[in-house]
Every structure is written in C-alpha cells, then in structure tokens.
Amino acid sequence: MTQRSPKLDRRARSANRSDTRSALVRCGVEMFAERGFQATGIDEVLKRVGVPKGSFYHFFPSKQAFGEAVIDSYAQYFERKLDRLLTDDSRPPLERLAAFVEEARLGMTKHQFQRGCLIGNLGQELWELNGRFRQKLEGVLLSWQHRTAACLREAAAAGELATRLNEADSEMLARFFWIGWEGAILRAKLTQNDEPLRLFADCFFKKFLR
Amino acid sequence: MTQRSPKLDRRARSANRSDTRSALVRCGVEMFAERGFQATGIDEVLKRVGVPKGSFYHFFPSKQAFGEAVIDSYAQYFERKLDRLLTDDSRPPLERLAAFVEEARLGMTKHQFQRGCLIGNLGQELWELNGRFRQKLEGVLLSWQHRTAACLREAAAAGELATRLNEADSEMLARFFWIGWEGAILRAKLTQNDEPLRLFADCFFKKFLR
Fold it and tell me: Which residues of chain A register pLDDT less than 50?
C-alpha cells in the first residue's frame, strides 16, 4: 500500500466533507422540489446520499437549517440560470425570456411533471413555517422578478414592446409574470403536461408585451 | 324522563350520523386548505371533531376516500359561490368577476393568509397522489374555468371588452385567469398580505379585458 502524506489526507478529508455537504443539499433540492419540506424525511435523505445521521447533524443543526441551505443553493443555481439567459446579448430581450420559458418547459417535461419549482412548493407549505423561512422565499422570488424586470426594460428600450416601461411598470409586469408562472407550474403538475406553461407564456407574451 | 318513539330515535340517530359525516368533511376542508393532505393526520381530524376512530372508518374506508369526499364538498360549495356571483344579473359581467376577486381577497384576509385554495394545495402535493385524485382536481378547476368563460362571453356580448370572444378565446382567457389566480393565492400566503391578489387581478382586468 502506498501512504499519502498527512497534508494530502487532510485535503482529501476536507474535500470529502465538502462533497458530503453538497450531496446532502443536492438531494434536498430534488426531494423538496418533488414532495416539499414536511414530507421529506431526513432519514430518506441520509439513505439516498448514503451517509450516517451524525454526518448530517455535523453540517446542519436542524431540519430548518438544512431547509435554508437547500433554498440558498437552489436560489444560487436559479439566479445563475436567469443571468445566463436574460442577459444574453446575442438575442433580443423578449427572445431571452422566451428561452427561459422553453428551458423550464423542457425541464418539467424531462422530469415527467413530478418536480415543480422548489420555491413554489415550499411557499405552499407555509402554515407552519416561520417568518424567517417565508422572507427568504419571498426574497428569492423578488430577485427573479428584478432580473425579469430588467430584461423587460431592455425589451422596451429596444422597441420590442408596444409602450415604454418605467421602472415601476416593469417591476409590476415582472411580478405579474412570476405570480402567474408559479401558478402555471402548479397546474402542469396537475395536468401532467406542458399545456399550462405554454398557455400562460403565450397569453403573457401576446396580450401583455406586444 | 320522557320516552321518544323508536321511529324518532332512528331519525335522531340518522340526523346525528349525517351531522358527524358533515363535521368530518368540514374539518377536512379546513385542514387541507391550511396544510394539505399528507400533513393532515386523521387522528387530529378526530380530535378536532370529537369522534372516535371507528366513526371515521364507518363513513370513509380510507384517507383517500375521505380526501375525495372533502374535494367534492369544497367543489360544490365553490360552484355555488361562483354561480351566485358570476350569474348575478343585477351587475354587469366584469363587475361580477371583480366581485368574486374581492370576496376571495376578503376571505384570505379574514384567515390571515393561512388558508389558500384547497384545490391548489392538493394539486401541489401530487408526487404521490394517484391519477384518480389528479383528474378530480383538474375537473374542479375546469368547472370553474367554464363558469368564468361564460361570464367573459357575456362581458364581450355586453360590449365590456375590447373585442368579441368566441368560445375558444373565452375558455383560453378563463384558463389563463385560473392558472394565474392559483399562483396569486400561493404568493399571498408567502407575503402574508393581499398585494399579490390585487396585482394579479388589476393586471388581468386592465391588460386583458379592456
């Protein structure tokens, strides 16, 4: 057997710990998006990831703390995705928003309409969630709204919309989009097809933006 | 002690049984609307209503059967409400839809934004619900959509909209409304205020219908 130096061992252990935490959070994202927070048991997360309970509590003092880490991770992933799509200068602004809609549609289709939006799912369960959780979720939705509003302002400036939009108008329109879009995701889980996503987006683009 | 006839006793027992079933279903409507299907324990329903377990299983062979009875009851209640509001000839058609929005807004405010739409809540939990449940929920939403579409056609016929609507257009617009409205209810639970309801309805009326 070859022996590694203590330094390499430390690095390996540290990399391993970071991998374990990431794996737990990734599993949390999947399970919360499918079934929500309350119905997700820590035991099943441990089983899926293949780590002992002590390892979980090493990273997360409570299920609430785990939930917050999962929300943060999903929010970061989603913000990167929105930034990639909505600030893509190679396309006109409205096409960027349409590209986001299309990517979301393909994503839901790929997962057979079992997975919705993690933020929407958690928002739905609020009867027992505390204010900290609620503010966190609303904060995530607001960050998506601001990014969408900026894209809509670019669309207006490029002459893609019927009217110019001031900042308040664009925020209102983007807020309307996200309110309705979360409803469309919910409905697509019910119909088990992409029709609600297409219908909502088509109406939004045709009636609101042209 | 006065003695009642056996016939009266039978009637009283029958009335009592029917009351117990109604009380269980009413409690189910409340609890499902607050916290959903999975998180609602039959034990807590029994405790709230004050009946023994055997009594529950006398009426409902399973939690699924109870869930279906609760959905049916809520659907009936909601259809009566929509019929009362949306076919009220004393008001122009668009005012009727606005009256529905206002009643829903007041209802959510009264319950401090803890209770959402029972149908929306249950739809959100579909990862483990069977097809029968899913079709039932979609059927309820469709019945609301058809009623709303009829009201929109009346609005168009009365010259309240910018354009005439054929049946397909009115169904599409009503479907858009219900997709987005369920999203607005979800968001109002998150913000704990009526702003998402007002914003969605205002945009819908201003941008879509005028």
Answer: 1
pLDDT band at B188 (very low <50, low <70, confident <90, very high): very high
Confidence band, pLDDT 50/70/90 cuts, at residue B73: very high
- Chain A positions touching B126 (Cβ under 8 A) are 114, 189-190
Burial class (CB in 10 A: 0-12, 13-18, 19+), B206: exposed
* Cα–Cα distance for residue pair B121/A190, rounded to 1 Å: 11
Q: Which residues of B touch A186 (CB under 8 A)?
A: 120, 123-124, 182-183, 186
Residues of B with CB under 8 A from a CB of A: 34-36, 38-39, 114, 116, 120-121, 123-128, 134, 137-138, 141, 172-173, 175-176, 178-184, 186-187, 189-192, 196, 199-200, 203, 207-208
Query: What pLDDT is attached to residue B33?
Result: 80
CB atoms within 10 A of CB A205: 15
Do the Cβ atoms of A127 and B34 come within 8 Å?
yes
Which residues of chain A does B35 touch, with a Cβ-Cβ cutoff of 8 Å?
A: 125, 127-128
The CA distance from B77 to the nearest CA of chain A, in Å, is 21
- Which residues in chain A touch residue B186, judged by CB atoms under 8 angstroms apart? 120, 123-124, 182-183, 186
DSSP A41: -
Cβ separation of A190 and B127 shorter than 8 Å? no
CA distance A34 to A12: 33
* Torsion angle of C-alpha atoms A74, A77, A78, A84, degrees rounded to 10: 180
- Cβ contact B153:B167 at 8 Å: yes
For B159-185, the pLDDT digits (tens) are 998 878 899 999 999 999 999 999 999
ipTM: 0.88
Burial class (CB in 10 A: 0-12, 13-18, 19+), A63: middle
How far is Cα B196 from Cα B42, in angstroms, rounded to an integer? 33
